[in-house]
Design brief:
The complex is a heterodimer of chains A (316) and B (183). Chain A folds into 2 domains: 141 residues, Aspartate/ornithine carbamoyltransferase (Rossmann fold); 147 residues, Rossmann fold. In chain A, helix 4 links the parallel strand 3 and strand 4. Helices cover 36% and strands 14% of the residues of chain A. Chain A is globular and about 60 Å long. With 316 residues, chain A is of the alpha/beta class. The longest helix of chain A is centred in the C-terminal third of the chain and has 20 residues. In chain A, helix 1 crosses helix 11, helix 5 crosses helix 6 and helix 5 crosses helix 11. Chain B has 183 residues and is an alpha/beta fold. Chain B has a single domain, classed as Rossmann fold (3-Layer(aba) Sandwich), CATH 3.40.50.2020. Helices cover 25% and strands 33% of the residues of chain B. In chain B, the strands form 2 sheets. A 5-stranded parallel sheet of chain B has the order 3-2-4-5-6. In chain B, helix 1 packs across helix 2. Chain B is globular. The chains are: A alpha/beta (316), B alpha/beta (183).
Chain lengths: 316, 183
């Protein structure tokens, strides 16, 4: 450590729109700062005063429980002022455009916007039109960068450096925004990523990202160090992608038998909410090789780091 | 603009200061029965470690020492070009009802000390906080903060810089006064 220089690195971006736009150094920087915040949220007084003059709006145009809660906790533990907005009870229903909604909120002097929106690219569009810093909390089935960062952070905590590690993403890749962000993030960190699931739920051009598809779940589990199990998003499936839930869990479900057949213990992750008995059985979800609740805890620390680093770029 | 450096404290004088400060602490802290040392990151920690060693030698018992990071408590967040990045806070003991000796290398405006006190209070309510610094830059305070134990007082201009230099293995080298001369 060079003790005579204060560390002064910063993010290469002004907004967190997607993992696609950030560098490996950005990711490492976020992890480094998240380490500090993780220590802070584990002490008796979990709050620091850094962002006491920053106001953050959480705009959720789509339902969310844990992401919203996690962001709100992260913001409050940094002492930011928080306003919440959800589309279900707003003037979006009355026909207001996205830009108008956001500009109205920004005229109330908001410095940062955390947004979830059903349209892919909504954040990118917004970032070209408004001044506030923007954090993508999910845009349709495109990206969910903070989830990918907390996933990678949790893997790193468990396995150390992710270079050369094998990670398989299992399940409904087609409807998942977590999958794409995870692929970008893990590849930037030097890990090998493959997907596994029914071919109807694997996007067509995934191989162009250098991601192979494994058709057999046992083969996939044998290959990987970490299995990130995605939720079957029935609410997004307007046609039938597989015959029945029972058949899906027989073909691709993660259960104790499958895990016990493996030579070594692998790490099981799930971004939540879990459909118990569908993509993962209860005994696996509650076992100690599943780090699902660690992911939730790390989510707050990682989001604090992202908000802190972006907020430091606001100059008043 | 060129900079000139002047040594204001050498190794020998530093050793004398450490020895005096340690004895001063023992005298004021009741043989360290209820006192702990907390170094302010980054460079206060080296001084705190050095004092801990000296005190253990003199008292022949374990002295508790930790480190506190002030990053998230500073008042210059977003007022600098680049973000302030945190160092490690290492307090694996309780400060509740303890007499805490806060240790830093240079006392200048007092803002870091203010932040360190705020950070410390997030870990409990100490009985008291003392401030020990190696260098006190007199007459340059922005806040009403004074040190209780001082290695060396120096009179400086606000345009000058005082730097305490430690080598790679955390050994003290010297203290320099850096002047910016305009010519």
């Amino acid at each position: 450590m060079n003790i005579n220089n204060m560390q002064t690195k910063e993010l290469s971006v002004d907004h967190l729109l997607g993992i696609e736009h950030i560098t490996k150094d950005d990711i490492q920087l976020i992890f480094e700062v998240a380490d500090s915040f993780k220590r802070i949220i584990n002490r008796p007084i979990k709050k620091v005063p850094s962002l006491r003059d920053i106001t953050i709006a959480n705009l959720f145009f789509e339902n969310s429980t844990r992401t919203k809660l996690s962001f709100e906790l992260a913001e409050k533990r940094l002492s930011a002022d928080v306003v919440n907005f959800s589309a279900s009870n707003s003037s979006v229903k009355k026909g207001e455009t996205l830009i108008d909604t956001v500009n109205n909120i920004l005229s109330m002097k908001v410095d940062m916007v955390v947004m979830r929106h059903p349209s892919p690219g909504a954040h990118e569009f917004l970032s070209r039109h408004i001044d506030a810093k923007i954090i993508n909390a999910g845009d349709g089935t495109h990206e969910h960068p903070t989830q990918a960062l907390l996933d990678a952070y949790s893997m790193r905590e468990k396995l150390g450096d992710l270079r050369g590690k094998n990670i398989v993403i299992v399940g409904d890749v087609l409807h998942s925004r977590v999958a794409l962000s995870n692929i970008f993030c893990l590849q930037k960190l030097g890990a090998n990523v493959k997907v596994c699931g029914p071919l109807t739920l694997i996007p067509k051009y995934l191989h162009e990202l250098g991601v192979e598809t494994i058709k057999n779940i046992e083969e996939a589990l044998n290959w990987c160090d970490v299995a990130n199990v995605l939720r079957i998003q029935l609410e997004r499936q307007d046609i039938k992608f597989f015959p029945s839930i029972r058949e899906y869990s027989q073909q691709f479900g993660i259960n104790k038998e499958r895990l016990e057949k493996l030579g070594e213990e692998i790490v099981i992750m799930h971004p939540g909410p879990i459909n118990r008995g569908v993509e993962i059985t209860s005994d696996v979800a509650d076992s100690k090789q599943a780090i699902i609740l660690d992911q939730v805890e790390n989510g707050v620390a990682v989001r604090m780091a992202i908000i802190y680093l972006l907020a430091s770029k606001i100059h008043k | 603009m060129s900079a000139s450096k002047k040594e204001i404290l050498n190794k020998k004088a530093f050793e004398v200061s450490i020895s005096r400060l340690s004895k001063e602490l023992i005298e004021n802290h009741d043989l360290f029965n209820n006192s702990v040392i907390v170094g302010v990151q980054p460079r206060g920690v080296f001084l705190a470690n050095r004092l801990q060693k000296e005190l253990q030698k003199l008292l022949k018992k374990d002295i508790i020492a930790g480190a506190i990071d002030t990053t998230f408590y500073r008042d210059d967040f977003r007022r600098k070009e680049s973000p302030l990045l945190p160092s490690v806070t290492n307090l694996d003991f309780t400060i509740e009802d303890k007499r805490v000796i806060l240790v830093d290398d240079v006392l200048f405006t007092g803002r870091t000390t203010r932040a360190a006190m705020d950070a410390l209070l997030a870990y409990g309510r100490p009985l008291s906080i003392d401030l020990l610094v190696l260098i006190d830059r007199r007459f340059s305070r922005s806040l009403p903060i004074q040190a209780d134990h001082v290695g060396l007082y120096v009179d400086t201009l606000s345009t000058e810089k005082v730097e305490v230099i430690w080598d790679e293995s955390e050994n003290f080298e010297h203290v320099v006064l850096i002047k910016n001369e305009e010519k």
